[in-house]
Specification:
Transpos_IS4; plasmid; ten-stranded mixed beta sheet; alpha+beta; about 25% helix; about 240 residues; 7 helices; Transposase Inhibitor Protein From Tn5, Chain A, domain 1; 10 strands
Length: about 240
Amino acid sequence: MTRLFELVAKPLATVLTPDAFLGGLRIMAIDGTVFDVPETPTNARVFGYPGSPKGTYPAFPKVRLVFLVEVGTHLIIDAFCSPYRMGERRNALKLLRSLDSSMLLMWDRGLHSFKMVHAVIKQLGHFLGRVPANVKFEVVKTFPDGSYKSWIAPDGESKKKGAKRIPVRIIEYVIEENGTPKTYRLITDLMDITKFPALILAKEYHQRWEAENTLDELKIHLWDGKFLFVLKIPVK
């Protein structure tokens, strides 16, 4: 099944596909979720359970899934399953193997890290990700569209391996949600403000929610009430 997936799971969007490209780059997104797997001793040992209140016990072991989706078609072109205890950020890095220079990868703030930025650049891809509120950036140069040039410093582990800080562009904007202003900050390697103005990038970033729609299609519309993962021998 793995080999079959590798053969058929390819991007299919064309230039005629709505919302599939930005400035000639194919829009991709990473997201993740968890699924129940059958209650067996092997699944319990390999995949594990989420934490639960004292005196209670989860009904089923959980498998964590992260996937890389083509935004314009909702096609999953790469995926990785792991035990529940492995976090999405760590697993998401594995999916960057399917990225190339023709792609623009979007991610939510939970996946932001120096390792993510560095890995995308190593694959020659491009990125547009949301940044957590507690992450600070130095303003190196302000662009006419209000965005600014900055850099992202390596984490301790990456620094020990010789990684250097990476120049990036930061876009800040405010959206009113339920009557309350909410600030968004995006990080990208796209420095051409003529081809990729801040307003366009801010607007296009919200296409990332198409990954959530893919998840909805998978878990709600394609699920018949049975286990999506029936594993007698856990995936290694």
